[in-house]
Amino acid sequence: MTNLTRSSFQAHPFHLVSPSPWPLNTSISLLSLTLSAVLTFHSFSGALTVLGMSLISIDSINPFELPLLNTVLLLSSGVTVTYAHHSLIQGNRSGALYGLVYTIILAVIFTAFQGVEYTVSSFTISDGTYASCFYFGTGFHGLHVMIGTAFLAVGL
């Protein structure tokens, strides 16, 4: 008779399940979801560039005024959220809180300026393909910023 003990067929004192295909499937699914979102927004950005080259009846917004300020606000919020993240990793709670508060303030200012940009623009969503692409791209980006702001506010 053979003496079968746990150590003869198991090299560790705990139970491991067999490898599952789900982590790989989930990774591939999330990668394809992210890639499709990037390609969708890239196509709308490219459409705005191409359609903006031949504007006849639409006065487009000067990119060096309010859109440039919004870009600076977004880049600044990226810096402050990165500071908050590094402070959190280093255990600096007050630095993380200040970074998150500044990020939320910058995001709220960006959202307000985006609303101002919508009200002062000379075209509406029904004024053609350029206007539709403009409002789709900036609208979903604004929604993304608002959802991120809400998540950061909850995380405070």
Task: Describe the protein's architecture and organization.
With 156 residues, this protein is mainly α. It has a domain at 60-156: Up-down Bundle (Four Helix Bundle (Hemerythrin (Met), subunit A)). It has five helices and no strands. GO terms for molecular function: cytochrome-c oxidase activity.
Spatial gap, N to C terminus: 64 Å
Helix content: over 70%
Question: Class of one domain in CATH?
Answer: Mainly Alpha
Strand content: under 5%
Number of helices: 5
What is the fourth-level CATH superfamily of one domain? Cytochrome c oxidase, subunit III, four-helix bundle
Report the count of strand segments: 0
Instruction: Please trace the helix and strand order, writing H or E for each element.
Output: HHHHH
* CATH-level-2 architecture of one domain: Up-down Bundle
CATH topology of one domain: Four Helix Bundle (Hemerythrin (Met), subunit A)
Main β sheet profile: none
* Shape annotation: elongated
Q: Which whole number gives the mean pLDDT? A: 86
Rg (CA only): 25 Å
Q: Uncertain runs with pLDDT below 50, 5 residues or more? A: none
What structural class do you assign from the helix and strand content? mainly alpha
